[in-house]
Amino acid sequence: MAKILLGVSSSVAIYKACELLRELKRRGHQVRVVLTPNAEKFVSKLTFHSLSGHKAYSDWEEDPFLHINLPRWCDLFLIAPCSAHTLSKIALGLADNLLTNCVLAHAGPLMIAPACNVEMWNSPPLQENIKKLRERHVVVIEPEEGVLACEEEGKGRLASLERLLDWVEWGLRQKPLSGKKVLITVGATREFIDKVRFISNQSSGKTGFAIARVLWWYGADVEIVAGYTEEKPPPEIKTVRVVSAEEMLKAVLERLEDIDLLVMNAAVSDYRPSERFEGKLKKSHSLELSLIKNPDILEEVAKLKPKNLRVVGFALEEESVLLQNAEEKLRKKDLDLLVANPIDTMGKESHRGYLLFKDGRKIPFSFGEKLGFAEFLVSHLV
Ligand code: CTP
Question: Ligand 1 within 6 A of 24 CB?
Answer without folding.
Answer: no
